[in-house]
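Hi P.,

Sorry for the delay on this. The queue was packed all week, but I finally got your sequence through. Input first:
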Amino acid sequence: MMAFVVPVKSKTVTSDWTSFSRLVNRCIKSICNQSNTNFKVIVSCHEIPKTKFNNDSRVEFLKARFSPPIFKKNADDIWIKRADKGKNKKLLRIMRQE
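Then the structure:
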């Protein structure tokens, strides 16, 4: 048996949940159209997206047991996002190789 794990971001960090749910639906539909039927789709999420696959035995929704990320706006009304901690080291490594 093969398992496909689909991570889904939280509704709190999604600007358009309906549009995002459509993308999740398309992803699950694509996986379910496999020629081999011996598979399982595991969707990891904080909130279950609007989907047509709630009653499909091949698809399982696992709700995360930790809180979703919190993004805040600064004083200038700009979203503060988490940076890649290794970004500077990666850039330095690339620059040294040139």
